[in-house]
Specification:
Blueprint (H helix, E strand, L loop, with lengths): L25 H15 L4 H15 L7 H12 L3 H10 L1 H18 L12 H9 L6 H11 L1 H47 L9
Helix pairs in contact: 1-4, 2-3, 2-4, 2-8, 3-4, 5-8
Length: 205
């Protein structure tokens, strides 16, 4: 008997050990796969593009601690995909901080706030004064921050509201061709599989 082809006691070949699963990246698991699943369930590329555009705009709302609720409301009103929007809300946290600073400065410029009255932007001081105990007392930290910086927060919201009507259409029209490309590639792959048919199986003697 060939020693390189071990057999079971019944004489049939022993199954080869399964290969270890391929390691999937965070992008594949949390962004690409949910989008592909939605596309394969009949959701149009235009709807996914709108979800990403409007969802990222909601995730960048310039008030910390409320973007999850804002994203939920936007998805509910526009009938968009809730999981994708909430994942965007998490991923865009570093961008959210930069967007907040941009909106504050733009709002202060629009309202002609003198330099001496502008919002302090030192991250360490902001964290020490308002957000050091955020996770243990989120409502207290948020209310304290808004109370001391209510004018700047209002300015930033106004600036965000001015930018959103420009941002959402721009992102939508940039993302729509990409989503259509994904659908086209998946259709071509499905057509090739249908043309070649299932792989032939050989019965075990």
């Amino acid at each position: 008997m060939d020693q390189t082809s071990p057999t079971s006691p019944a004489g049939s070949p022993r199954p080869l050990p399964a290969l270890p699963p391929k390691v999937r990246t965070f992008w594949q698991r949390r962004i690409r796969d949910p989008i592909v699943v939605q596309l394969t369930q009949g959701i149009t590329p235009e709807k996914i593009a709108l979800t990403l555009a409007a969802g990222s705009a909601a995730a960048l709302f310039p008030v910390f601690g409320v973007t999850t609720l804002i994203c939920f409301i936007v998805a509910l009103v526009l009938r968009l995909n809730q999981p994708i929007i909430q994942v965007l809300n998490q991923i865009l946290l570093p961008v959210h901080i930069a967007t907040f600073l941009l909106c504050v400065r733009l709002g202060e410029f629009l309202f002609q706030v003198p330099p001496s009255e502008r919002l302090m932007l030192d991250p360490r001081k902001i964290h020490q004064m308002y957000f050091e105990d955020f996770w243990s007392h989120p409502l207290h930290s948020l209310s304290y921050y808004i109370k001391d910086n209510s004018d700047s927060v209002i300015y930033s919201i106004v600036a965000w509201a001015i930018l959103v009507p420009l941002y959402v259409p721009l992102m939508y029209y940039l993302l729509r061709p990409f989503m259509r490309g994904v659908v086209k590639v998946k259709a071509e792959v499905a057509a090739k599989k249908a043309a070649t048919g299932p792989a032939p199986t050989h019965p075990v003697p």
